[in-house]
Design goal:
By secondary structure, this protein is α/β, with parallel strands linked by helices. The protein has 11 helices and 8 strands.
Amino acid sequence: MTQHGSPSTDAHWTGMVPVDDTALAVTDTGGSGVPVVYLNGQFATQGYWRRVLADLGTGPGSGWRHITYDERARGRKSGRSADYSFEAAVRDVDAVLAARGVERALVVGWSYGAYVATHWARRNPGRALGAVLVDGAAPYDWLDEAMERRIRRMFRRMGWFMPLLRPTGLVPRMTADEQADSNIELGRLGSTAELGPVLDAMTVPVRYVLASGTSLGSKGDEQEQIRAGLGQVFERNPNIRLSAKVPSNHGAILRKDFRAVADAVREVAALEHAGQ
């Protein structure tokens, strides 16, 4: 048993974890280090985290136990489901941790995964060692009827080539409407009225790593306006702080500024250790 309440395992493990009507492809580096679970972008895969993991170290003596997985219908192996809701994504965190025997973990989420990490940490303050939120989970009222239509048009336009890329695991095995529904649901959950109170109630250490510039589907300075709203969150809750504002954009942050993300993980883990 480790100091984090989880049984240690020296074996690197890769396999499928059943949950609800599907199964998720999971990788666990094992070891007795700090358990860290990584939550992907909305349609991304666990491979996006490889540079962060390499910077932190993945060997038995690294001090870390990294758990990554592909969400429903993402990647090459995770199965399709009848439920792609946000609540299903939060439930999947519990399913993966339970399957790997992990009681307490540090959650790291990028983009969509940052929202999932926020909700999971808020609901499980006794199990969350802390959270690192990478360019996501910023309260902002960006969704309206015009934006909904824009989102649906964007995914329908991309729908013609998505099936061609699905065998590579680069795009989800979801319909254009399912992807649009997921994105629109996130817009509602990310509103100031919905997300603001969740962040205000956070009692574990939270560190943000923010990108610069645009993201897929955004225009002009939309993304910077969303990020700017976090200033009020930092003022209201002393548990939440900015770890770094990096030059890379939303899509490139895990590739170009992975060291900033790894440093934020170290920062949160050190805070948890100091508070013991």
